[in-house]
Amino acid sequence: MLSTDHSLTAQTVLIGEMRTALGISNTVDILAHLLSLKGEEKDKASRDIKKVEDKARLEMKPRPGAENILNFLHEKLIKRTICTRNNLVCFILYCFASF
Predict the structure, then answer these.
(1) Which domain holds residue 71?
(2) pLDDT tens string 2-55
(3) Which end of the chain has fewer CB atoms at under 10 Å, N or C?
């Protein structure tokens, strides 16, 4: 479970670590920065972000009650998905599955 907005997981230093890995300041949007890169520079930046995400995924702990909420949704057969601004495919698949 990866929750960068910390609605389901305890807070980590994920965003700060991403900015450090990319060498960008707090005023630069991470995704905009990645989209501005080309070729090997973009590939390296993407690998650096993945390393930070992988580390965070291993260290994250669920917030109290998060498992209860997810179990409830599962038991009631309520559809759920993960929507993020950096993975529009999840959002699109969810929308089509809902109709």
Answers:
(1) 14-97
(2) 455 667 777 666 788 999 999 999 999 888 899 899 999 999 999 998 888 888
(3) C
Count of other CB atoms within 10 angstroms of residue 86: 11
Q: Is residue 6 part of a domain?
A: no
Does any domain span residue 9?
A: no
Separation CA 90–CA 37 (nearest Å)? 24
Of the two residues 75 and 99, the one the predictor is more confident about is 75
CA nearest 16: which of 49, 39, 45, 63? Answer: 49
* Residue in 42, 63, 45 with CA at minimum distance from that of residue 53: 45
**What secondary structure does DSSP assign to 10-59, as a single string?**
---SHHHHHHHHHT--TTS-HHHHHHH--HHHHHHHHHHHHHHHHHHHHH
